[in-house]
Amino acid sequence: MNAEIIAVGSEMLTPHRQDTNSLYLTEKLNELGIEVRYKCVVGDNAEDLTAAAKLAMKRSDIIIFMGGLGPTEDDLTREAVAEALGLKLQRDPQIIAKLEERFAKRGIKMSANNTKQADVLTGATVLPNSNGTAPGQWISGKYDGKERILILLPGPPNELKGLVEGECISRLRAKIPPQHIAVRELKIVLMPESQVDARLAPIYKTYPDVQTTILAGAGEIQLHLRSRKESQADAEARVEELAEKIEDELGDAIFSRKGESLEQIVSYLLQMRGMTLAVAESCTGGLLAQRITSLSGSSRYFLGGAVVYSNELKTQFANVPKALINKHGAVSREVAKALAEGIRQRCVSSFGIGITGVAGPTGGSEQKPVGLVYVALAGEEGTQVVERNFPGDRKRIRWFATQQALEMVRRALL
Fold it and tell me: Which end is more exposed in the chain, N or C (fewer Cβ atoms within 10 Å of the end residue's Cβ)?
């Protein structure tokens, strides 16, 4: 069985608010083996809501509405669903009594418009809401000859979560056939999305029962593998088989298979080897150190470093000779090498990283354009320097540079 989530509220169609409930709800549905095939946000408009409900009924087994169950004129979910299904709304006196009791306990007189929250769709089961005034509703039955489940939930997150966990999960578990979802998340660093797909498409296309999604990020590609089977063991076996074939193809270009970040992997490897790291950053301005130290326990392997933006500090903190800077310029292969070696010597670390480049948007030239970055890694076996021309804006270039640095450390530790 597959699900559709409809978030109701005009505020979520503005730049100021976004739907976050659907992320939580998707997680809970996936735990039951239910795939979410569609999500949409609909404003507070009766015609639009009715149209969304009718479309959802045609294509989805489970339809969940979130929001639009309040007492105000723009809360229209109940009315729209009734119109779409050809059902009537009946005002439930027991709900009204509970609403009055709730307001009385707070010493507040209940407004007449709150009685709207007692309107129940014909044949619906009321889902009591202990965290708010709007109860949820559950409707199941055949529509156009197909079994459908409709769930109406309030929008406030604490109310929605209470109803999902207290009222909906057990009902859904009793209704759905046995189904289980297994997932894998493989991460690949510094490889173009098109190249990844060209190499992997011939492999994953032979697994039509495993959904493969390729997502491109800044400096990494994520591969999401997903399979749904009648047993968890069968689902796990299927995604694992495909994951192993992908790993055979890409080798150590894959740095994670459980969703870890690149800095987490570098952290594991440094601690396993009992080695330490220090950094000298110019164009990244401390971003690399920030990423490394964002992990608890990083003091076990990260000694520190310096942000050496000016030429004077490159010399003072990382022992880069002034003559070297004057001859080759601050953004050069030679200075990156000197930064890595100098900071390693100053901090007495196993590895030293040096980064220098032009992050932009100003400061570039024909010889040294925006995006030109040199990253150096110094260790016991010598120093390697990588020259890259990263695309994008200042933020993206800086991030790519730190990805390159961490990847160099990872491969050195491998």
Answer: C
* Phi and psi at residue 118, to the nearest 5°: -95, 5
d(CA 286, CA 376): 15
Report the share of the chain in percent with pLDDT over 70: 100
Could you count the other beta carbons within 10 Å of the beta carbon of residue 177?
A: 7
Whole-model pTM: value is: 0.81
**What pLDDT sits at residue 145?**
87
| 14 shares a domain with 121 | yes
Give yes or no: residues 97 and 211 share one domain: no
Domain of residue 381, residue span: 262-413
For residues 126-155, average pLDDT: 94
| pLDDT in the model for residue 143 | 86
**Cα-trace Rg, the chain:** 29
- How far apart (Å, rounded) are the C-alpha atoms in residues 321 and 313? 11
272 and 237 in one domain?
no
**Nearest alpha-carbon partner for 358 in 404, 391, 385:** 391
